[in-house]
Amino acid sequence: MEEINGQQRWGTRSFIKEKYFQPQLSPEESVARIRQTTEGLREMRHMLETMSWRYVMFYIRLKSAYLDSDLKNAMSTVPDDQRKSYVKTANDVVDNMSELDRYVRSPKVYESYLYYEKTLKSLDELVAMLA
User: Fold this and answer.
1) What b/e sequence results for 74-106 when a residue is b if at least 16 CB atoms lie within 10 Å of its CB, and e otherwise?
2) What is the pLDDT of residues 84-97, one digit of tens each?
3) Contact of 11 with 30, CB cutoff 8 Å
4) Burial class, 3, CB count within 10 angstroms (exposed 0-12 / middle 13-18 / buried 19+)
5) Rounded to the nearest 5 degrees, what angle is found at the Cα of 61, between the Cα atoms of 57 and 67?
6) pTM for this prediction
7) CB 29 within 8 A of CB 37
8) Domain spanning 25-130: which CATH class is it, in words?
9) What is the pLDDT of residues 22-43, one digit of tens each?
């Protein structure tokens, strides 16, 4: 992973930089960022338990903003015979994150936990395919 000034290429600390001046990543860097997103979501459990909805919403929207491009970019690392299942799992990830965002906004506690777990499960399946 290439580092610039001690940070990964995607590791800008500014939302504006990450949103509007996002560098083009290699497929390997996209896979690494998907793994980082998975770990970040896993560590977010305490925010759901304390019902810190605003922080959860911010994190989900920030990660969803670039997850689409990462999923498309990382597909080139998947063998041809697994692409169909990769696409299905990637679609599940995007759908589950959208539903999680919707229920966190409401806020509906049970549904938020349910889609949090579904999102983690589908991200774990996706990371296993990318390994």
Assistant:
1) bbeebeeeeeeebeebbebbbebbebbbebbee
2) 999 999 999 999 99
3) no
4) exposed
5) 140
6) 0.78
7) no
8) mainly alpha
9) 567 888 988 999 999 999 999 9
